[in-house]
Amino acid sequence: MATCELRSFDEHLRKEMSPRTSPSSPDMEDDVAFAAQMCKVKAIVKKARPAPPKRRTERPLPSVQPTADSVVSLPLYVTEQDRRRFLQQARKAADKYGVKVVRPHAGNLVAPFLVQGKREAARAFIERMEEDCVRGQTRSSDETASPDIAPEHYGQAIGKGGARLKYITEKYGVRVSVPKDRESPIAVSGQSESVRGAIREMEELVRQDLLKRRVALPVKVLPEDIGVVIGKGGCHAAQIQEEFGVRLRTQSHEHPQSPLIVEGPLDAAERAVASIQLRVAERRRLNEAYAEERRRREELRGTIPVRVEPGRVGMAIGKGAFRVRHVAQRHRVRIQLPERNKPDGQILVTGLKDDARAAVAELELMAKLKLRPEHVLVPLRIQSEEHVLVLGPEGCRAAWLGREFGVRVVRPSADGPLMLEGGVEAVARAEAHVEGVIAQRRLTTARRF
After folding, report:
1. Number of domains within the chain
2. What DSSP string describes 295-310?
């Protein structure tokens, strides 16, 4: 069979090489012989090679079910914030369950702790640690605090049938214990954030209930201040009742010693009491200021007599006492005339000392000068350097005032003030005109500079 294969290969080789090379080439003969020899060797080697052995299929090993007594290494993941609490309790718990806890590398906060020991013991240890440390249910993680609620308001904190306590415990997951003696404070236990939230909401709910409850609050005012609160015809009391929605009473069984009671919701009643006390304090302040002003004015007040000759008292008084009334109204003083049939009686002027002196000076001057019975004498309130503006060159402006207003400009002395003589109305109009001109001149001078 090998000979047949070799012969066929030689023939095929000759057929392929015949068109390209000449059959008489000696090199070609040598190549063909070498190729034939290699084919024989290949066939012999292929025949002598043994067949590869068949691969045997491996059977699976029988599974071994772990028992409770088998030693295992189970992972236990602990967060970074819980590691300190875990390490504090792991040693005692490991001794109790008979396991060993292998810590990860100190810098690796992600790798788990390994719990080595019997399977059941390791699982029990892991469950205990997760319950105590990881979930934060240990006693060390709990916080107990008390809300700021008075014992008489425990009923509002508990609610009808304990509904409010049930709501607080379910919402925040805390434990609330109310003492039976109603003297000890309410205790709220649980996680810190939950306890703070529960206490805050409990206090707010109690406060809202108290604000809606109707109370009778006494107002700390003196009996003499009741009129300030009530007002004329009760106007102030009606305003307070309408504004705050409360009721004012002057008698109450709850507070018999208080002169004024405010009834209504706690919030509105407290605001009404504050408003009343503010009103009373403001009125007291005004009264004190008025009293101080009166005292100061009394210190500055005085009574000065008018020095007039007995025969010329009537000149100072005027017909029907019109000059005295004019001076008293002008200087805001009180003038006391002498009694009749007393030739030595004096005219007394009472008021602020400066005003009284000015009034006395006018009365004395009117008594000395010869005035018409219907005329009065009024000094101008201007400075000495402004006299020329009133008099004018050679008295031309003074003459114009006489023609325009029917008055006469009088200068009793060289250093004395200018005065207007005439009827009461004429003098008032002329005085207003002169003061207006002087004020306009002062304004023009100020603008110029």
Report:
1. 6
2. HHHHHHEEEEEE---G
Element (H, E) at 247: strand 247-249
Q: What is the pLDDT of residues 62-91, one digit of tens each?
A: 554 555 567 888 888 777 767 777 877 787
Characterise 182 by phi-psi region: left (phi > 0), alpha (psi -120 to 50), beta (else).
left
Task: Answer left, alpha or beta for residue 377, where phi above 0 means left and psi between -120 and 50 means alpha.
Answer: beta
Domain boundary among 316, 337, 368: 368
**201 and 219 in one domain?**
no
Q: Within its chain, how far is the Cα of 162 from the centroid?
A: 35
Q: Is 321 left (phi over 0), alpha (psi -120 to 50) or beta?
A: left
Average pLDDT over residues 232-255: 83
CATH code for the domain in which residue 247 is found: 3.30.1370.10
Indicate if 137 and 152 belong to the same structural domain: no
Query: Per the structure block, which two tokens stand in for 215?
Result: 């109370």
Residue 24 has pLDDT above 80, yes or no: no
Same domain as 355, residue 330 = yes
